[in-house]
Amino acid sequence: MQQLKKGQGTRDERLGMRVCLLLLVSSHLSLVPAYADVIYFQSGETVKGYIVEEHRDRVIMSTLEGERIVLRAQIDEIFYDDPERNYLYLATQALERGEFTLAKGFLQKALQIQPRFQEALDALGRLEDLQKKAASAWSNPHPLEALEEHWGLTLESTTPWPLVKAVREDSLAARVGIQVEDLLIRAWGDSLAYLPLEEVAGILLGPPETTVKLTLQRRITLPKESLEGKKWPGMTLGMEWLGLFVLMVEPGGVSALSGIRPQDRIMVIGDASTRYLVLGEARRILQEAGKGGMTLGIHRDLMIKRE
What we know:
By secondary structure, the chain is α+β, with helices and mostly antiparallel strands.
């Protein structure tokens, strides 16, 4: 990896060496032991762990010493343990430069390795969205006003994610299920944290009849079991790469009546993050909370057709 550091070749040379290494790793996946993600700092320092969150200006890495926030301005390179994530990393860089063909090639490589790699599938959606915007020469000089006009959505700046301050009745935002006090987390899988509201609005807006994938965060309270007389919690949980998710919701049960939907991802139980919970432990916590009620923090994906 030292040959990938800045000052040791042009960007194209470093890119070529990285791709050659990825091709070698991809062709011998069964021979490669699991290590960790590695961040190479501009200072020469390196740190190993697993990157658990990525934002425009920072990443969060889980290390043996705990979670560590690393600003991207400090980073020289990131090399991921999984080859498909390295291709996604290269694709994201290409998208930021407007190199759509190169980005698509990297995403296709990632999906050859892992066909169900959701982040790469989302990035393809983002790529197609950017291409449609470019082809139509779409732009809006006043995105926040346009978001209120076309979506009926008013945002408020909070840290780290934008907060839904108001939703106009019978608007696009209301019809797709966005609610006041929701947080807007991602668009096409790309984090909306720490971004100016104008930029967030510009990402959501686009030519009519095109689609954007939006992920929101919502707090949902499951009432006390005795109040509903229903089986607690009335949902079946599963575990996938992105975390704890709702596999099935019992019709008329506590979860359904509270607004939980299949495929919602449960990020918080009470005040505790589910990031490092195993499936059995999450089930146990929910079951034990039945008599006293429980508040969940969920992420929900919405596919929104622009008007």
